[in-house]
């Protein structure tokens, strides 16, 4: 997998260098206004809603959803397989990797192992490919997340979900194949116990972790990938090799959404739990001051950046770079997003105005799959499928 990633990185850097010069700035635009409710060529529809019943045994919870989405899921896992086969044409490496990933599923903690096995069964897709989707998905999400507080102390949380596996540019359609294939897999989930909502999320069918979710009335949570050169993915290799003391990032966010009962408790779990890879956790609560970005390394918390109405920031905004450092020069979605946020001010911030920010190019780009808007106090979570018609940045 390391070799694959190395080759991948080389390809990415070459593509980045070639495209950046041409593509980066010309397609940036003025901050949008009055774009909500979504319509027009950027809007590709609403994510359908499914109930996931936590009272069912884990192996059965996903049956209905997967039954509806298995064709789309198969298309995507076939594409991923195809990309790997392109890197290792003999087929042997892919075969070994799949075998390893199948074995890996047996090491995943309850209820994730059971759920993933249930998904493989319901979809008829080999277990190794479902595991691959679950492992790689959380490593390759490049995103923009925002928590903001208005002048009355009400909090808003929103995110763009971009999928960053920089492979498979479709020249004819001018799009990323995997991004296009993820859009029809996007769903809004309502996790229930005793017929009552425990939490809600925006997800991809087939993925059992969480990258965006809300516990109504209590807190909201999103996760962004954090690239880290200093041994970023070593925890995942250690897990495969048998040293299993960290937690998968998307499993932690799922456990927090399912079982944490307050903003403070969620913050505590996200700050203290040992992880397999670095990440950003963006957390919002239900009252003034409850918004933060937690910058995580595998083993520790490097920084907690809080909203602070006593002279501190009224919003926190995270893409995929530490907030105290400059973003990568060829991937600066932060500066344009901040520029639009600063214009709105706490007086006019709302889910519709945040939607304006997130659908302004290049915050919106060819990797963007969807935008999710969350208001904890209104128990509201909305996910919109988005596209970025030309002219538009590839990332
Ligand atoms: C809204 O956007 C349009 C088009 O970019 C611009 O002309 C107009 O001034 C904007 N309105 C406000 C209130 O910012
Ligand atoms: C590209 O466009 C063609 C024609 O519109 C369509 O059939 C095909 O599925 C598209 N490919 C992808 C990957 O979206
Ligand atoms: C949930 O609702 C369904 C249909 O309304 C009902 O049949 C079922 O018994 C309820 N389950 C629980 C645990 O209350
Ligand atoms: C949440 O807690 C319940 C009860 O302890 C447990 O069965 C369940 O597996 C937990 N959920 C996750 C995702 O860890
Ligand atoms: C806000 O969250 C806390 C837990 O963090 C909860 O006790 C309280 O009831 C919530 N407030 C409202 C208005 O829902
Ligand atoms: C807030 O929005 C209103 C109506 O669009 C506008 O008149 C006002 O100038 C805005 N306030 C700020 C601080 O931008």
UniProtKB/TrEMBL annotation:
<dbReference type="GO" id="GO:0030216">
    <property type="term" value="P:keratinocyte differentiation"/>
</dbReference>
<dbReference type="GO" id="GO:0005764">
    <property type="term" value="C:lysosome"/>
</dbReference>
<protein>
    <recommendedName>
        <fullName>Acid ceramidase</fullName>
        <ecNumber>3.5.1.23</ecNumber>
    </recommendedName>
</protein>
<keyword id="KW-0732">Signal</keyword>
<feature type="active site" description="Nucleophile">
    <location>
        <position position="143"/>
    </location>
</feature>
<keyword id="KW-0964">Secreted</keyword>
<keyword id="KW-0443">Lipid metabolism</keyword>
<comment type="similarity">
    <text>Belongs to the acid ceramidase family.</text>
</comment>
<dbReference type="GO" id="GO:0046514">
    <property type="term" value="P:ceramide catabolic process"/>
</dbReference>
<dbReference type="GO" id="GO:0006631">
    <property type="term" value="P:fatty acid metabolic process"/>
</dbReference>
<dbReference type="Pfam" id="PF02275">
    <property type="entry name" value="CBAH"/>
</dbReference>
<dbReference type="GO" id="GO:0062098">
    <property type="term" value="P:regulation of programmed necrotic cell death"/>
</dbReference>
<dbReference type="GO" id="GO:0005634">
    <property type="term" value="C:nucleus"/>
</dbReference>
<feature type="signal peptide">
    <location>
        <begin position="1"/>
        <end position="23"/>
    </location>
</feature>
<feature type="domain" description="Choloylglycine hydrolase/NAAA C-terminal">
    <location>
        <begin position="143"/>
        <end position="362"/>
    </location>
</feature>
<keyword id="KW-0325">Glycoprotein</keyword>
<comment type="pathway">
    <text>Sphingolipid metabolism.</text>
</comment>
<comment type="pathway">
    <text>Lipid metabolism; sphingolipid metabolism.</text>
</comment>
<dbReference type="Pfam" id="PF15508">
    <property type="entry name" value="NAAA-beta"/>
</dbReference>
<dbReference type="GO" id="GO:0017064">
    <property type="term" value="F:fatty acid amide hydrolase activity"/>
</dbReference>
<keyword id="KW-0378">Hydrolase</keyword>
<feature type="domain" description="Acid ceramidase N-terminal">
    <location>
        <begin position="46"/>
        <end position="104"/>
    </location>
</feature>
<keyword id="KW-1015">Disulfide bond</keyword>
<dbReference type="GO" id="GO:0016020">
    <property type="term" value="C:membrane"/>
</dbReference>
<dbReference type="InterPro" id="IPR029130">
    <property type="entry name" value="Acid_ceramidase_N"/>
</dbReference>
<dbReference type="InterPro" id="IPR029132">
    <property type="entry name" value="CBAH/NAAA_C"/>
</dbReference>
<dbReference type="GO" id="GO:0046512">
    <property type="term" value="P:sphingosine biosynthetic process"/>
</dbReference>
<dbReference type="GO" id="GO:0050810">
    <property type="term" value="P:regulation of steroid biosynthetic process"/>
</dbReference>
<keyword id="KW-0458">Lysosome</keyword>
<dbReference type="GO" id="GO:0005615">
    <property type="term" value="C:extracellular space"/>
</dbReference>
<dbReference type="InterPro" id="IPR016699">
    <property type="entry name" value="Acid_ceramidase-like"/>
</dbReference>
<dbReference type="GO" id="GO:0017040">
    <property type="term" value="F:N-acylsphingosine amidohydrolase activity"/>
</dbReference>
<dbReference type="GO" id="GO:0071356">
    <property type="term" value="P:cellular response to tumor necrosis factor"/>
</dbReference>
<dbReference type="GO" id="GO:0046513">
    <property type="term" value="P:ceramide biosynthetic process"/>
</dbReference>
<keyword id="KW-0746">Sphingolipid metabolism</keyword>
